[in-house]
Amino acid sequence: MGIVRLKKKKRFKSISNEKNLGDMALVQQDEVWSMRRLVNLHKMKRPIGKIIVNIDLCKDCRFCIEFCPNGVLEESKDVNSKGYHYPVVKPGKELDCVACKMCEKVCPDFAITVVSEEYITYDKYYGVSSMPTVAELYKKDLDKLLRPGIHFLDGNTAVAEGAITAGCRFYAGYPITPSNEIAEYMSYRLPQVGGKFIQMEDEIGSIMAVLGASAAGVKSMTATSGPGFSLMQEEIGLGSMLEIPALIVDVMRAGPSTGIPTLLGQGDILQAKYGSHGDYEIVAYLPANPQEAFDFTIKAINMAEKYRVVAIVLSDQLVGHMYGKVRVPEFDEIEIVERPKPTVPPDQYLPYDSRYLVPPMAIAGTGYRANNESLTHTDKGYPTTDRDASFRLVMRLVRKIRENEKEIAEWEEYMLDDAEYVIVSYGSTSGSVRRAIKVLRAQGYRVGMLRPKTAWPFPGWVVENLASRGVQKFVTVEVNMGKMYHVVREFSRGVPVEHVPYAPGYIPDPDYVINNVRKVIEG
Amino acid sequence: MSVEAEVTTTGVKVELPKSYEDIKDLIRIDRLPHIWCPGCGLGILLKLLARAIKNSGIPIEKHVIVTGIGCTGRLGGYLKLDAYHVTHGRAIPFAVGLKMANPELEVTVVGGDGDILAIGGNHFIHAARRNDDINVIIVNNFIYGMTGGQYSPTTPKGAKTTTSPYGHYENPFNVPLLAYAAGASYVARWTVLHQNELYQSLLEMFKVKGFAVIEVLSPCIIYTDRNAMGDAVDLMKILRERPVIDHNANLADLEIDFSMKKIILGNFVKRERPISYR
Questions:
Q1: What pTM, to 2 d.p., does this model score?
Q2: Taking 50 as the threshold, does the pLDDT of residue B259 lie above it?
Q3: Last residue of one domain, picked from the residues A64, A95, A125
Q4: Is B101 within 8 Å of A213 when comparing Cβ atoms?
């Protein structure tokens, strides 16, 4: 294996001088996978636009209403002096205008002016208290966290350290290969930082203990692999229904059933979203190396807390056991999201207040005495079969992710600018694909890679844009018999999607990718 | 957007009688009347539990109720506490997580025989083995009531249920013995008729450090109907006449058979074992 890799490396060096490889500097920058800093968005400012409408000029063409990307405007009930309805700012949308001036640009009648003199921070806009960073939150314990700087860790340890950095202080799990390193490491580390560890009797018990601990106000996680993940599916639905933040790390292994515990697969992608019954949404990340395992675990815990959902890190055996460089950012750079807390007194508190997309969460034992109901429930948490209440609840559970998918979703575009053929790949497989693309480019094929970093929400609009830009074919390369293939097809707008199947417990060799992608390209 | 008006099951505005003045703030009055059948014992347990919680000496906001699925699973929803109605059989691990993350909480699991002993049986014995500091109330009505009367792990041999139309072939669990053998710190069995004893037992349960189990025998018309035992009142009569209170009974003798000739009640076990965490 080592010899083969060395050969590939040599070949890569020899072709790297050729012209059609593109900008070499860019390639090398890409090689440093996601060394990007975690930016504290919450401290960023954005302008608030003020839309001034000259009412009597308006002729009710509705352009501004149609084209406003944030849906700020609506038609007035009154009419102007000529009898036309004119645009007004929707009630409650006063702060939503970002001063893009689209309405001003599309108005044919010179009726709209947008001025932007004020600014708003993310914190104020979402009405949340300022998002603290790790440095602010764990002042006393900073010396106990993994110190900032460069470390050499395996993926599973990186996940565990990421979780501890993000504030996770409870772990419940059941031994399963290849996720064991996470449990072992957590049992050693959590007591050092004042956290608690328990090995439960099975995976169902583990995820339930995690949900329970999270309900008591402690950020919690579990780690598992294929068979355990299957057992946890019902409780993913429970976490979604009770809206309890939790993190599940699924170190994917080859399946089906017990499969090959020590080797990798990427077959849990669809199960992560569709595994439990009913309608719900989750957030799932796809790390490709130890650095991302660290970063994405922090992000996953943040997303779980922010949206009160179950977040999943879909690592795989190779990422879990791969050693690599992990850069831990300075503590004042890592933002930490805490779940929304109720501000009203207990007698006015509604545990599932549908006026919010993500209602504030009362912690057990703080006096709110909330009924947390796994049956379909009203705002107050009482079981219901009422049509409106049921529909409203399910709509909200789904909307809180779907409406924010563009903020959550992340992806990497690798040599896509002029690509005619797009390989969609993720996780550890993307490393092979990267090498294959370099070779294929050298041979004259204009190939690029789209690497979703979040499996869910899936960045479908990126695929749509590529399809409408004239991409000839999409090729999915993953270690399964076609999972993300179906998702890409959903968004491909009729552009053919082909799958390169591979599921022997290893990632495909670059040669395998090259030969099969070439076959697909040449038809 | 206005908050939705609360709809009670009947749409009638309900007020508690004055005798329940003391637990008025613990019962969700706007949800009454509750969903349980006429003749069900759960309503009795509900008010006893509310009283016990009120007088437990532990602040009310530190009490948490976790329930699974089934008739008994609905009990938590009527208590004005931090209540979690979770999935079938998984109330105990959820409670373990709650208690571990915040040891100040007084976590009580209420579940039926099917919920805790069948689908949740593994969690039950392991929580007892670890001696997790939670309270478990098993409401034993000998049958799966909500799903229409299938046999449960405590259905006596010979009983007719929808899934044992010729009489049940299997042996039932002896719950106190099971709990003791698995490692529980406190084991008691009462019926919903023995209210003073059950009430004292509930108060005791809150004080116990460790895994506390109370088995509460409760009548169920789904069970009595199938077995030509009359209605729930007739089973209540049996529970009034037959039981013998013996705190020092041999745990192996506690099995309840179909004839229900021998029902032994009592506070059987109270012992000190190290709990799983501090």
A1: 0.77
A2: yes
A3: A125
A4: yes
